[in-house]
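Subject: Predicted fold for Proline--tRNA ligase, 565 residues

User T.R. writes:
Posting the sequence so we have a shared reference for the thread.
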Amino acid sequence: MRWSTMHIPTLRDDPAEAGAPSHRLLLRAGYIRQLMAGHYSLLPLAVRVRLKVIGIIREELNRIGAQEILMPVMHPAELWQLSGRWQLMGDEMFRLKDRKGAQLALGMTHEEIVTSLAAELNSYRDLPQMWYQFQTKLRDEPRPKAGLMRTREFTMKDSYSFDLDIAGLDKSFDAHHAAYSRAFTRIGIPAIPVEASNGSMGGSGSTEFICPSPTGEDDIVYSPECGYAANMEAAVSALAPVDPATDAARSLDEPQRFDTPGVRTIEDLATGYDAPADRQVKTLVYVLDGRLTLVLLRGDHALEEQKLIDATRAVAVRPAEAGEIFAELGAHPGSLGAVGVTTLPVIADLALRGRSGMTTGANTDDVHLRGVDVDRDIEVSEWADLRAAEAGEPCARCGNPLTVLKGIEVGHIFKLGYKYTDAFEITVSGPDGKPVKPAMGCYGIGVERAMAACIEVHHDEKGIVWPAAIAPFEAVVIVAQQNDAAVAEAGERAYQALLDAGVDVIIDDRSDRAGVKFSDAELVGIPFRITIGKRGLATNTAELTERATGETVSVPLDDLAKHVR
Ligand code: ATP
Ligand code: MG
Ligand code: MG
Ligand code: MG
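User M.O. replies:
I've generated the C-alpha cells; pasting them so everyone works from the same file.
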C-alpha cells in the first residue's frame, strides 16, 4: 500500500467533540467519521484493524471447534414474541414494518434466531454444537458514547452453544472463557474476567471481560491476589426517572419513562417476573438532591393487562430517616412481601452514596426476592465487597486488599440454560430415546469496542500505539526525501523486499517533509518505522524506530525484514 494513494485523512488538531482518547485518536488519525450519533463509517485504516481483530477471534473460536455461520440482521417479530423479549427489550430494539405490514426487528442479539436453527438438531449425537458469527447488531442506545465504544450499530462476534446437559454447557462455557482470554491477550487487551449477572439474556451465570480503563462505564471490585473480580454495574448504572421529583409522586395515568437501558416504562418493570401480577411489589430507590426517594409500586388487577403496575407511594426522606422507612417496610411483609427486608437496605446504601438503583421483589407463596438494577441482580455479597473496598477492608474470601476499578466491557459470556430451548420447545432424542432439551450458552465480543478499548490502553501523547497483531500495518517505510531519485528508489526496494518477506507494510511516498510523515506514522500508530534517507543511504542503512519505545537503531538495508518481526 502507498500512503500517497490511500485515504488517510489525518487532522492537525484534536476534534472538539471527542473526550475519550480512542474517540479523539480514531477521528484525528483518519480511522473513522461520524454519520450521525452512534453510527460511524470505518475508513481504510480502521477496516484493516477490524479485519485483524476478527481474524484473531475467528482463529481462537475455530480452535475450540466452533463453526462460523451468518444469520440475518432483520428478524420477524414472532420469534421475539415467542421468547417474551419483544416486550422486554423495550426502546433499545429498532422495529419496523415491511410493505405487507409484517412487524420486524433489527437484531440486537441473536438467541431467538439461532434457537430456531437448533430445531433441526435431532439426536443427542448431534450435540454439542457451537455456532458463531460476525454480524452487525443494532441497538437504540439511549446514550451513544465515545466514538466506537458505544454505538447504535456495531459488529458483534456472537456464539451460541447447545449441549445435552448442564455439564456439557459448563464445558462449552469454559472453552469460550479460554478462547476469549487468548483472543484478548493477542489483541492486546488486558481483560479481567469478572463475575456478572445475566440481565435480559436470562439464565444462570455469566462472566464479563473487563478492560481496566478510566473511560470505562463499569465498576469492578477486584482482588488480583484472590483471583476475584465482580461487576458493580448494578450499583452504578443509575436508574434515573426523567424527573423524579414530579413523576414519581404522580400516579401513573400514562406510562412513565425511565432513562435507563432495558427499562423504558413502568410496564417493562412488570415483565419477566413470575409472581401473579397483583402480588408483585416493586420499589425504586434513588437519590435526588441528597434526599433518598423511595417509590413503591404495587400490582393492581383492576388495571388492564399492559398497565399492571401503579405507583402507590413516593417518599422523599433524608438519609437519616431511611432506617425508619426500611423498618416500616420490613414490618409489613403482607403488603410489601420480602422487598426491603434484605435487598432494599443494600440498594439504599448504594443510592445514598450516589449510586442509584432499583430493587424488585415478587411476593409469591414461596417468597422470591431479588434486587435488580435494570440489567441485573445485585448480589448482596458484591455490595459487601464494594463497601469493604471503599472502607479499605480486605476481601472476605482471602483477606487480601480489594480495589474498585473502572473498566470497559469488551466481552460477555452467559450460561443461558433452558430459557430459549424451553420457549422454542427444542428437543433432541436422548441415548434412551426419550426427548432431551439442550442446554444453551451465548457469548459476545464487541469488535469495534475492542478496537477502541485497545487504543485506550495503548496510546501516548503522539497518537495510537497499536500492538503489532492488530495494527493496520506492521511497518511503514518512510522515504525522507521523495524528490531525491536515489532515496526514492532505495525506499521502493526496501518496500518490495519487506512485502516479499510477508511483512504487512506501507510506503510513505508522499512528497511531504519527513517531519510530517513521522508525525502521521506516530499518530496512526504503526509499530515499526523504517526511514530511508540520504545520510543512511551512504552506508547502505536505514533507521528502524519502534513506535512503542521510540528506540531507533541503524539496520543494513538488505536486512530489514528480520528486524521488524
Ligand atoms: P453494555 O453494558 O456496555 O451496554 P451489554 O452488556 O449491553 O453492553 P452484551 O449484550 O453483553 O452488551 O453484548 C456483548 C458485547 O457487545 C459487549 O460485551 C460489548 O463488547 C459489545 N457491545 C454491546 N453494546 C455495544 C454498543 N452499543 N457498542 C459497541 N459494542 C457494544
Ligand atoms: Mg447494553
Ligand atoms: Mg453490560
Ligand atoms: Mg453484557
